[in-house]
Amino acid sequence: MVIKAVWIIVLPIIAFIIGVFFLGLSRKVIARIHRRYGPPIYQPVIDLIKLMNQKSISHGRLFDMGVILSLAGSIVLVLFIPFGGIAPLSGSGDFLVVLYLMLLAPLGVALSGGEGANPNISIGISRKMMLSLGYEVPLLFSILAVMTYYKTTSLVEITKAQQHLSWGVIYLPLPAIAYFMILPAMLGIRPFDIVSAPQEISSGPSVEYGGRYLALMTVEHAFHTFIVLALFVDLFLGGGNPFTFFVKMLVVFLLGLFIHAVFPRFRIDQAIKYCWKWPSILALAGLVIAYVVA
Amino acid sequence: MRRIVSIIILIIIAVGFIFAFSKIPFGKDKINVANYYIKKGIKQTGAVNIVTSVVLNYRGFDTLGEVTVLFIAAVGLGAVLFVERKIQKNMDDKEDKTKRASLILRTGSRLLFPLILLFGAYIFVHGHLTPGGGFQGGAIIASGFLLMYLAFPKQRINKKTSGLAESLSGLIFVGIGLLGLVFSGYFLTNFLPKGIPNTLFSAGIIPIIYIAIGFKVGFELTGIIDDLLERSR
Amino acid sequence: MQLITILIVAFLGAGIVYLIGKISGKARDILAVLASLIVVILVSLAYNQKIYTSFYPLPFLNLSLTLRIDPLSWFFAIAVAGIGFLSILFSLEYMKHYQKLDFYYSMMLFVNAGMLGVVLSADFLSLYIFWEIMSWSTYLLISYKGGKAVGAGLKYIVMSTVGSIAMLFAIVSLYTSYGTLEFSSLASLLQTASSGYILFLLIMFIIGFGIKNAIWPLHTWLPDAHAEAVSPFSAVLSGILVRIGIYGFVLVMYSIVGLNLLHKLGYGLLNFNYILCWIGAISIIIGTFIALLQDDDKRLLAWHAIGQGGYMILGISFGTTLGIAGGIFHTLNHCIYIALLFLVTGAVEYRTGGVRDLNQLGGLIKKMPVTFIGGLIGISGLIGIPLTNGFVSKWLIYKTLIMEKHPFLAFVALIGTWGTILSVYKFLHNIFLGQLPEKYKDVKEVPWAMRLPMIILTSVIILFGILPGIPLNVISGIERSFGIKPLSTIIFGMPREIGELNIINILAAIVVAGVFIYLIFSLSTRSRRVNQYDNYAAGSFIPKDKYQYSVRFYDPVYRIIGPYLRDVVDDFYYWLVEKSKSFFQGVRQIYTGNVNTYALYILLFLAFLIITKIGWGLW
Amino acid sequence: MSGIYNWMYYIASGGLILIGLYIVLVKTNLIKIVIGLNFIDTGINILLICIGYVRGRTAPIFSRPGISPANVVDPVPQALVLTAIVIGVAVLALALSIVIKVYQHNKTLNVTKIKGLKW
Amino acid sequence: MVNPSLLIAVPLAFAFSIPLFGLVSKKIGKYIPVVALLINVGISFILIPQILKKPAVVSIGGWSPPFCINLVVGPLGVFLVTLISSIGLLVAIYAISYIKEEPTEKYHMLFLLLITGATGIVLTGDIFNLFVFFEILCISSYALVAYNKDKEGTEAAMKYLIQGSVGSSFVLIGIALLYGMFGTLNMADIASRVTSADPTFLFISLAFLITGFGIEAAVFPLNAWLPDAHSSAPSSISAILSGIAIKTGVYGVARMIYTIFNADGILTFIAFLGLLTLLIGEMSAFRQNDIKRLLAYSSIGQIGLIVFALGIATSLGVFAGLFQIVSHALAKALLFLAAGYMIYRVGSKSIDSLSGLGRKMPLTSFAFTIGSFSLIGLPPFAGFISKFSIVYAAIQVKKPIFLVFVVIALIATVIEAGYFFKVVQNLYFKEGKNVDNVTETSGYIIVPMIILVISIIVIGIHPQFITGLLKGAAGELLGRTGYIGWVLGGS
Running along chain A, 294 residues long, what does each successive block of 10 average in pLDDT? Predict the structure, then answer.
């Protein structure tokens, strides 16, 4: 019980650190691919401290609360996703709960941005919504394939079933590939950075954010990155202890970054069509196989 | 097209008729219920004319209906051809297109009219004795009026009086029926003494009803003629 | 006696309200509220009772009308009474500017009374009678506003009549076969029936109840009717009236036919349950994704009512403990949040002068905060965000689908949820968020009589979201009465053996995390409040009132999916109606007006009769 | 020969009825149609009389001596015919009056042209 | 015991006396039908309990049954007489102030005679007498249809007259054939002898009779007169024609088939004919824009339903058919009365012009609504019970063909619901164009409508008021040996 309580406090911190690390890493890696030097890996931390002390504007109560809700949702989510076998709250909610809790963060941003009353925000949120509709199709197919295959809705049991190298990716390669293909869309990185495209819509939903708002959003982004990757590892790569878990996350992240960094940015309709085409077909095929096999 | 279809249909119906008629041999004695009337009619009704006894006694109710039908026709005709009095006056004032009848016709009809009336009265008064009766007599009376109309197109019967006569004679018919109900418990029963058959004052209510019918039919038919004549102007 | 009292109060209330209304408008309003309140109280007093009364004999048919209360009927009765009361309360202010209010209130009470009658009936004849009363009074209320509502009302009542005759057919067939119409006796008598007959019955009842419940492909009346009815009545209509269909499904499938027989129907994939759930799934897809395309807020909600109906069907069609519980619970939840959302749109209409076009609204959050919160919580419930009631029921349904190995159905359900998110966010965003147009500068929050129902419904959503055990307890009572293994519940969620769901932990986690972040947030440098025009526009000047970027909010998606999402069923019905109209037109040409022809008909008939006898020797 | 003799009256009555029906079916003039109706009536009256006739017997009026009950025809059809004639007259009169009105309104007697009411 | 012959004699006497009263005052005439029918209603209500105990056979003229005309007052007769005189009474009250076109006293005479004819038809036990009363009914309705003397009325009357005369001729031919075969005119007597006759012959005479009565009953191919006549007559007459006159035709057909000929074989065909009538009627009504024509076509449909129910020929089926007669008579009379006054106020028969009348004429519109709801068969109105019984009866016979029939009949109900609901919406929920100075009716117009509304609701809620009578009536139609027994005294 005490251990659990400790983990409840520690796990978000770990997630935060890993997430921020990935943020910094991605900037560095992309810079290197672009033949730039890039900022130091700890740059996001510096940014955060700076932002917390900057002045900012607010458009109203919801503008504030939305950001808080968004971050709180992400933090809570961390507690439900096993991290190397550690999942302090997984008994209070299964994968379905996770799927729904994943909604809190974008909803918070959307609400907050909505009150921001900036056309760019509206466009950004609209794009975010549509994009999520796009990637949810293959995502749900692959998740359902996993759940069908392992006959459970509990993430803990899914990871448990993948002990001893009997990873999900071996039995369910197609859903895994599909998940991997939409990973950048979920993370909002290239070529799916349409939501926050700085050149087109001035960073979209975060255009009105400054100071502490931007800081919290960055933190949220870090958590989000952690969650998406952790989920992938849990579902397809068999979890493992915290260290191997981290390594697996890192590998997935870098792979994704390398592959996707070279693509140009999609238009939103292209993105949706892409999501609904290959990843969906693969994931659906995976689901059918899982359904037949299970 | 329509003709051909019609003829085919009519042929089918004709075949039906043939089938049906072949089961009713012509001229054979098929009298069933009517034997009762033939045998007991004179005794029961006092009328030697069995047809009359059937019409007014055994099947008196039909006759009441029949009278009603004629009444309806007269009333309905009046209703359908009704014109507001004012308009009619205007028409009268304009001009009268009908020609005056010839002298021979006028004189002849003046001569014949009372005779016709008398004959009609004779027919309906003797309805229970001889062929004839109220309807026939009424029709004869109406023909007398028709003659008068031909001879004197401008003259009219008094609508009010004729209406009253119609109404009263109808009421007499129903009233006699109701009296029968009162006296013997059946509607239209012959509650009066039957008298000696084959004399004028016999057969109880039959002559009374026939007289009423005679007046009624006479006035109704006259009324119908009058109405039609009125519209023809 | 108690049940009879409820119905008498309900029906008499309707009548008296009309008469009083002729004397005084004020008294009528008070009386209407009182009548509906008394019904609520009376129904809640009947909690956990089992009553069975025969209240009206029809000796010439050898039948008597009966009423009963059991967990199922109580559950629906309280929902009916509650929603009825709240929407009448809401009407007090909302309807002020309308005319024919006597008629309106009386019919509202009448619809409620009809629904109560339906759920309290203990035999099919009384159910049918109350069902029809409910149908025609609904029709009158839908048409109440005139204009477009007339067409909507007609569409509704014609489809409803079709449903009624299907139901009537089934009922009469039951009666001729078994000589009784009481649920309890039928339940035992039907156990020996052939499965073909059961299937026939079920299909007929599904047509009957399904048209009310607006399952695909019987849904086409619903969007028009919901959109065109006055908002308080839309709340009743969508919240509970439509869901009386679910009551019917549950009643027929589990209370009367029973699980044993249900599972014997059909072979393999052509199983009855399976087909029913695919119908539900199609309803979800059609409903939520067509909702995405709507620009009229009530129409959008209306399509969601169809979609959410699909979830309920999905839940109840499996006949597992979890599934039935999920389906019934979702019915209740839906009734709460959709009623709330319709009241919200009503409030917005009330203050903006009847604007329903999402593209013309915006930014009302600053003017109508209570309404906004209602809307927010309402859509959260509709989506099923954790901590709102919709979450628990949807969770139960998904869980059932995955446990029963129907991943494809689960996919449909989940993707339906995403469609829901998109469309209801648009609903919320376009009404309350974004720029406030100049013309709504002086809009005020709605009066208390309208706020109160919204507040009550909002708190119920949260309450059931956090303490799902309260309603689930009643629902497990319902399941017990069906003879199904009842759902074991704890107050905060599900016990361990069913699945991992403990709302209180989630709540605690979110609250703690939220408070923690709020602390950090407020410790950091303060921010400055600015007005809505003071924001970043890349340096360009944006004129007022041209600042709406919410028109055609999801345009790229429309372009991709729009062509596939035509309501073909509706088109088909219209085509059918048009074709039959021209056919009818043709039929009446036989009355040509020519009397020769008429005589020809007569003789043809005679000749036909003769020829059948002589020619063919018939008869 | 006796066959024809037996059938003659039936043929007359049936023929009148059929002719009347034919007129009603085919003729377009209202007056003619009314006359056709009258044909039918007459045909039926003859039919009734035929049915009541017994060969070799006399009218059922016992006003002269020598007429025995065994020697008279059926009185009932005669009574019926009386009624039927009156009804026929009534219908005829009413029909003509209505025709007069129709003519006033339509200025024609052609039924194919009087089609104000249809469908 | 009141003598049932008074039921005919009283209105007849009053009808004949109207010109006499006219001498006293022109105004009395319009009250005479009310008085006469009030007496009739009283008599029939006194008769009901007595007749239910023991049917009465009353001879006219005092001879025993086969030898004279007699009235057979069984449950069916007394039921129909009560219906006829009640509806007649209400319509007579309505007509007091509705009929303004001269010559009103002639109208009232004809009206009273029409009712007399209908009463005679259902009471008489003699087939030729039936024909006579049938003619009374028909001829007075020809005259009344033409009563307005306008273009439509006379045209409709002309068409009605031609078809009606052909029909009566057929009836007379049928009677002549029957007389030729059996030598008797008493229906019970004929009924007791039919088994001895050649079946082909019997069928041909039955064909003539069915066709003849079918024209008045407005069964499908024979009903072309109905829409014209019902829509062009004065509305009070439309109400009577729809409410009563066509029912007597149905009575005629039913009496012939059930009692006289015992023609079981044709019953399914009759049911089919009814169904066809129902479909054609409802389909034709659907596209109408003339409110009275719509109601007229709806009458065709409802008659089809009645005939269908009678064709089921189980005791429940006949019961249901008779119940439908009641509910249709009440509802359709109500509809015609209400529509009649709306038309009078608005000045147009088109449905569109009735828009918005719900506000201006609330009571009339309410009456119209109740009537149409009852016709559609919605609870808690009378029409529901009858429709339910019909469906029940049709399914109960357990013949596949009747299952198909009942499905089709129910589909026709949907069509009917479609157009009636449209009209109701028109009344209440559409903006009226030129109804500003339309006012509500009052007095003699509204009373009958209110009574009809109340009776529709009361019968709908408490059908037991009439079910006993209807059961007896159904028993009379189906139990022909009983009928023969009453009249001829055997068994």
Answer: 78 84 83 82 83 79 84 84 75 77 83 77 81 84 83 79 76 82 78 70 72 82 85 80 82 81 77 83 84 78
> Do C232 and C95 meet the contact criterion of CB atoms below 8 Å apart?
yes
Residue D111 maps to a domain: no
Average pLDDT score over residue span C392-414:
83
| d(C-alpha A152, C-alpha A167), whole Å | 16
Beta strands A56-58 and C527-529, pairing class: parallel
Which residue from B16, B51, B44 is spatially nearest to B131, judged by alpha carbons?
A: B51
User: Residues C241, C117: contact at Cβ < 8 Å?
Assistant: no
Please tell me the total count of domains within chain C: 1
Q: CB count, 10 Å around CB of C269? A: 8
Angle between helix axes E246-254 and E104-123 (nearest 10 degrees) is 20
Phi, psi torsion values for C63, nearest 5 degrees: -135, 160
Residue C4: pLDDT over 70: yes
Q: Look up the pTM and report it.
A: 0.90
Number of compact structural domains in chain D? 1
Give me the residue from C415, C429, C514 closest to A137, CB to CB.
C415
- Contact yes or no for A149/A127 (Cβ under 8 A): no
Flag whether C577 is in a domain: yes
Is B198 within 8 Å of chain D by CB? yes
Interface C–D counts its CB contacts (< 8 A) at 31
* DSSP bridge partners of C58: C63
**Residue C510 counted as domain residue:** no
ipTM over 0.90: no
Mean pLDDT (whole number) for D91-116? 88
Cis peptide before A191 (omega within 30 of 0): yes
Residue D74's CATH number: 1.10.287
Per the structure, how many domains does chain B have? 1
Q: Across-strand partners of C63?
A: C58
Residue-number span of the structural domain to which C583 is assigned: 568-614
Place of tokens 């009378």: E382
Q: State the distance between the two ends of chain A, measured CA to CA, in whole angstroms.
A: 36
Q: How deeply is C473 buried, as exposed, middle or buried, from its count of CB atoms within 10 A (0-12, 13-18, 19+)?
A: middle
pLDDT (0 to 100) of residue C443: 79
Mean pLDDT of E430-440: 74
Q: Give the residue from E339, E205, E335, E207 showing the smallest Cα distance to E273.
A: E207
Specify the pLDDT at position A7. Answer: 80
Q: pLDDT digits over C554-564, tens only?
A: 777 788 887 88
Give the E window 186-225 contacts with C, CB below 8 Å. Answer: 200, 203-204, 207-208, 210-211, 214-215, 221-222, 224-225
- C-contacting residues in B 7-46 (Cβ below 8 Å): 8-10, 12-13, 15-16, 19
- Cα–Cα separations (whole angstroms), residue C191 to A29, C255, C481: 70, 12, 17
Domain that holds residue B48: 2-232
pLDDT one-digit tens code per residue, E360-402: 888 888 899 999 999 988 888 888 888 888 988 888 888 888 8
Which helix (H) or strand (E) segment holds residue E310: the answer is helix E291-312
Residue D85 within any structural domain of the chain: yes
Residues 6+ apart with CB under 8 A from C221: C152, C155, C156, C159, C160, C211, C214
Residue B90: the pLDDT is: 54
Q: Is C146 a domain residue?
A: no
In a domain, C288, yes or no: no
Q: What is the distance between the alpha carbons of residues B86 and E225, in angstroms, rounded to a whole number?
A: 34
Does the residue D39 lie in any domain?
A: yes
Full residue range of the structural domain in which residue D88 is found: 2-106
CA E359 to chain centroid: 32
- Chosen from E194, E378, E403 to mutate, greatest number of chain C CBs within 10 A: E378
